[in-house]
Amino acid sequence: MPNLRSFHLHYLSFAINYADKEPLNFFSLSKIVTLQLLVHCLLTRCIFQHKFCLGPLERLNVEVVDWVDREHLSELMVEYIKQKPVEEGIEAWADYLFVKTASNLESGVTTPLLKDGNPTGYHDLDDNVDCVRAMSSKRWQRGSRPAEAAGSDSSVSSGDMVWKHLESEAGNSIKYRTCSWQKTAALLFSEYICLAVMSFPYSYSVLGLVPGLILTILVAGIVLYTSFILWQFCLRHPEVRDVCDIGQYLFWDSKIAWYLTAVMFLLNNTFIQGLHCLVGAKYLNIMTNHGACTIIFVAATAIISFICSLPRTFNTLSNLASLAALFTFISVTLATIFAIIEPHPTGYTPDPGVGGGEPIVLPWPAPGTTFVAAMGAFLNISYTFIGQVTLPSFIAEMKNPKEFNKSLYAVTIAEIIVFSIMGSVIYACTGNQYMTSPAFDSLSDSVYRKVSFSFMVPTLIFLGVLYASVSARFIFFRLFDGTHHKGNHTVVGWLSWGAILAATWVIAFVIAEVIPFFSDLLSIMSSLFDSFFGFIFWGIAYLRMRREDYGSGFYRNRGWRGWLGLIANLLIIGIGFYFLGPGTYASVESVILKYREGNFGSAFSCADNSL
């Protein structure tokens, strides 16, 4: 044991020397701590056999990461070292870490490879560097329960890859893997709880209140489940940076699959940017009573969004995301309260003979509801929940990706509560006769409408910003991977980042203005893309993971759980193809009907597009 303690001290002194012998204060210690944490985990890996069940090791890594919070550890280190000679303080700190290591090892991993107090075969402390490198390159043997292993089909565990990323970013001025699960949850809140939530009352009016609420909970559960599959897949493949990498993995490492996924990925994101340019113009038209040409408002929204999308890390964007999510909640709450307190909705007439009368609320679909109308209402609900396309990018920038499930639980619970209550209350107050989408237009008082819609502005801007950042990151990382421009403040790096963002916003602006039926085209694109990004990919990912864990007959080998998983994920794949087929048909049919009714304008039109 004394030699192991010396081993720890040896690497701690190396970390301090590496830190250029900076003064031991709170700020310089942050630099030292990064290296010390790596040393701590490497030591833990070195003193065990090459063959053991991966499950306990993964649990150990989770424990290590949980208590190794960089800022908290810096404070602890200061407490150990201050008011002591430097050498004694460092020795006390090493003792603390060693005791903590020993307590963590009680998780079940046993049989240390020790000989005379040293790891077997490595009597020279310096040789342990080679030991670590050699062990890191080996594929860990799995035990009798491979399903417990987070990295059963990856040559490098997720914990190793996280530390590798942290080590590679140690000297960079821009660090990407910095998001906590709380900040990731803020990004998810801003992505999911957005303007689209105001379409739920309309969907409930078409589907009926009971089917609408059931579908809300059902879709939320399916998206949560598929997001968990996505998360598990990312843990197995920590080198994944975005959904395009996943597309390549799922389809037999095909580069063609990567390119096709990349095209869908970029088109999906750019169309969402364009939609938010139009929605921003719609808000400006409302507030100014169409005070200028709509093209100017669309361009202004694109420019503001471009400026807001300049931050290069999700950690920075999460601050804006928290603000956007808060204002969205206020907007939805105000709209609900206003719908309750105002005497009548927009368009109210007391004569029921002309489609008026008191608001009618139906538990089931109204007689004569068409398939196209019902499918459109269902797609409105589904598209609000479907957002898995960004999740791999978020996970890739988390300090501890194993905590991503906390973010998922938080946002899913909030979605179900907000969507169900707001949708039901506004529908009950407005009724089938007067319902509009978004529901802001159902408020008869223009002041109520403007006030509640105004609190939605941060989300109108931020959601487009978020998708622009995801697209720019996808391109930027591949252009500058392995260069110092990626992780540092360089002229080339910032000019390139800005140019990529500018290009995405210019394209989004042009598409939004050129296509007169843009909103309906977005529904078509969503049917085509979300069928894969929301369902098909993750059903296939589950089947691939279980096959790698248990063989081709995994559903037989795992008993009822295997059969249940097989049926559930085949059903998810089937839902994806339903979106792809009937969903696309309903969206195209909607465009045809609106063309016949003359509801489409012209390209680059100055016409008022307000509510």
What this model shows, in words?
This protein is mostly helical. The protein folds into 2 domains: 2-135, no CATH class; 181-362 and 385-597, Amino acid/polyamine transporter I (Up-down Bundle). Helices cover 70% and strands 1% of the residues. It contains 24 helices and 2 strands. The protein has helices spanning 2-18, 26-46, 54-67, 70-81, 86-104, 127-137, 158-169, 181-192, 200-207, 209-236, 243-250, 255-288, 294-308, 314-341, 371-385, 391-395, 404-434, 446-454, 457-480, 484-487, 491-514, 518-550, 554-557, 560-597; strands at 114-115, 118-119. Strands 1-2 form a two-stranded antiparallel sheet. α2 (26-46) packs across α4 (70-81), α9 packs antiparallel against α15 (371-385) and α9 packs across α17. The N and C termini lie far apart (73 Å). Residues 1-5, 18-31, 41-74 and 98-159 have low confidence and may be disordered.
